[in-house]
Amino acid sequence: MKKYLFFLMIGFLPIIAFSQVDQMDKQTNEGGFFIQDSLKSLIPITKQSLLRDVDVIFNSRMAYNSNFMDGNHTLSEFNVNQLRFEVKGKIHDKVYFRFRNRYTREPIPGNLDNISRSVDLAFLRIDLSKSTKLSFGKLCADWGGYEFDFNPIDILTYNDVIEYADNFLVGAGISHDFAEGKQSFSFQVLNSRTKTYEEQYGSSAPPSINPSEYPLALVANWRGSFFDGKFETTYSYSFFNEAQGAHMNYFALGNKFKAKNFVLYYDFQYSDEGLDRKGIVSSIISSQYPYAAQEALYVENWVRAEYLVAPKINLLLTVMNSNHSWKDNPDPNGSSKLSTSYGLIPTIQYMPFKDFNIKFYVAYTARRYEYTNYAENAFGVKDYTTGLLGFGFIAPLLVL
Q: pLDDT tens, position by position, for the chain (400 residues)?
């Protein structure tokens, strides 16, 4: 008898299954998420429309890297160079949010802004009009220059100014588009750093300088597009109130030239720092001067050329240099110029899919650090070179 009941149930299973599928199809057409006819949607129908305007992205770069020092191989390893989780989108017709967290940096909260340094972005943007937008939260400082404008996964090695800067800061900003979207202007008021003055400089803080009660930064940016988009610019000026009587004036001028299969970028960076925020000059003179350098100057050039030789093959070449000077050198016989760094990054990218943004690459990053004769004699520093050979992939993995 049990055997007959078993076969009878087997016979009715297709009918039951098709009945369930029919009920599921009806609910699917209503946009519901469900398990059975009797269960409610896991995400309310009124909220599901929000998902259409939200993106979830894993910004990734992973590679097998071989490292060199002065021409000698030191280490080869697999490395997660970049992994940044990002959620962004509209939560209202006029309200946009963006959050990005970096998993390749320690999640240590800054004691000035009270948010982890691993968090790149966490802000709301309110669209006051079609052309004017207001933002609050942890923002990307709107510096000019295309090196900083790129998604970080696309920059294998940064030049010195961007590499050693605080790029993501808490504050507010406003932007406005004009000339039919071909020009835009933005202005931000930000914290000048993520840490307090005492934590930033510690025992290296010069005794003659006191912290400011208003450690703020003002950033103004202008973006332009000319000749039907063949030439574009992003220029900025930033003023950082680092401490009482110690300020930073930072200029960044980015230029982009576009042809059919060729793109050329050129950035000029000029950072005049009353108190050395980058720390490069301070590290050079540390054997003789225990405090952070005053009146440090960084002047840089950055060039990147891209040529699409075939639909799936892209050739890139990045050339960069950075000059480091100490304008306040107390040595009457000394030189203000201390060192120069150079960089060369030839890269080949292979893009196998038309409808999926993933790039496999091989690249070699060659860096050279040269010190002036004065710096070598006065501070005991020596020239050196580094190299990095990488095989890997770059992908902003859009999962939703």
A: 434 443 444 444 444 343 443 443 434 444 443 334 444 555 565 566 667 789 999 999 999 999 999 999 999 999 999 999 999 999 888 999 999 999 998 888 888 999 999 999 999 999 999 999 999 999 999 999 999 999 999 999 999 999 999 999 999 999 999 988 889 999 999 999 999 999 999 899 999 899 999 999 999 999 999 999 999 999 999 999 999 999 999 999 999 999 999 999 999 999 999 999 999 999 999 999 999 999 999 999 999 999 999 999 999 999 999 999 999 999 988 899 999 999 999 999 999 998 899 999 999 999 999 999 999 999 999 999 999 999 999 999 998 8
Q: With 0-12 CB in 10 A as exposed, 13-18 as middle and 19+ as buried, what is 230?
A: exposed
pTM assigned to the model:
0.86
In the chain, where do the E strands start and end?
A: 54-69, 72-92, 95-102, 119-127, 132-140, 168-178, 183-191, 216-226, 231-243, 246-258, 262-275, 294-310, 313-326, 337-350, 359-371, 384-398
Q: Match 């891209």 to its residue by tokens.
A: 306
Question: Do 80 and 88 touch, CB atoms closer than 8 A?
Answer: no
3-state secondary structure (DSSP) of residue 65: strand
SS3 (DSSP) at 201: helix
C-beta separation of 297 from 276 below 8 A? no
Cα separation of 244 and 211, whole Å? 6
In angstroms, the CA 189 to CA 173 distance is 6
